[in-house]
Amino acid sequence: MNERQKKRKEMEAVVVMIEDVVRNHQQNCITMFNMVRTMLQTWNNGHEGRPPITYSMTTKIPDQVRHMDRLVGLTDADCINNLRMDRNAFGRLCRILRDRCGLVDRRYVRVEEQVAMFLSTLAHHKKTRVVGFDFIRSGHTVSHYVHEVLRGVIHLHSILFVEPSPVDESCEDPRWKWFQGCLGALDGTYINVCVSMTDAPRYRTRKGHIATNTLAVCDRFLRFVYILPGWEGSVADSRVLRDAVTRPNGLKVPKGAYYLCDNGYANSEGFLTPFKGVRYHLKEWGPTNQRPKTPQELYNMRHTMARNIIERAFAVLKMRWGILRSASFYPIETQTRLIMACFLLHNFIRGEMQVDPMELELDGGNDGLAGDQQGIVDEHGDVQYVDSVESSPAWNQKRLDLANYMWRNL
């Protein structure tokens, strides 16, 4: 067999192999087509007679309108129980967010419903899915508008934080009249947060909770003047205060004025603390305990009675907003902003509602909003502020002189 015949046989073998491949491919395609056709026929037979499934936003609108009417259209009690403010305050908040923060009605979600979903989340710490079920919305819709309203509320910080007024000679409140020049009280509070495993040690408090240490300053009327959220729970209160005072837009304490604070801080210019080693807390001054025997004890008793305003402010705040009582699963940056929003809305409610139901529920008392509520006015731009927090012999002497003055006028 010559070379030419060999090549011819090889070419014939290749042609036969290609024909086999094509024939097998055609058979496979026919088999697959028959299988798909059989499956479609089976599916059509199983669904024969069933109505087509359709989805329409408009079918949900009547139920959504009825839910909003139940929240804000019937009684103040329902509105307060669900959204923590009465109907007038809710309407004014929506109007402010429209006018100042750019919130607008969307095609299917009005501003009122956006704000209601946000307040419901803060008040009861509901998960997005639960709020979506209540408002007949998707979880994505709820999450979107929670963040939209959150940005708007944070934008209102310049008008919702108050300017404190110092105690003057005309003050008749027995808790405050001894502390002329005092602007209010400050303290730190732990608010539980959810962070990553790598960050957890930094946020762990002395009691083992994962929390953020939030500095808060309030005036005599349970209204917050300044807050600094976001510091880790392991950080000392004094360090947080130093950071607040030295920030460019931080806590401003005019020279000569001061806030009451506990012994977690240094007795320094602008911050008056109790005497150490002397009984101090309110429970130590109960009706069955002895009366003060020294000027230092008398000073500490009156100091704690006045400074208790910040503890009451924290109690009212956490009773109002359930999201502050347990950790949420938002990113830590969002959790910090939600904390600030709770403080701002607390001030808004205190300013808009004549009676704060949470304060009445706390102990039946009422600090009210009566009295001089005008802030410190810097007419000439020459007010000097405290710019450091260091223990001061001059303020130690000021504290001792105040204690002796109280003792002489007992």
From TrEMBL:
Limits of the DUF8040 domain: 75-154
Membrane-spanning ranges: none
Record's subcellular location: Nucleus
GO-annotated cellular components: nucleus
Signal among keywords: no
Sequence ranges assigned to domain DDE Tnp4 in this UniProt record: 186-347
Keywords, comma-separated and alphabetical: Hydrolase, Metal-binding, Nuclease, Nucleus
Keyword match Transport: no
Names of required cofactors: a divalent metal cation
GO molecular function: hydrolase activity; metal ion binding; nuclease activity
Family membership: Belongs to the HARBI1 family.
PANTHER family in UniProt: PROTEIN ALP1-LIKE, PTHR22930
Name this protein carries in UniProt: DDE Tnp4 domain-containing protein
Lineage of source species: Eukaryota, Viridiplantae, Streptophyta, Embryophyta, Tracheophyta
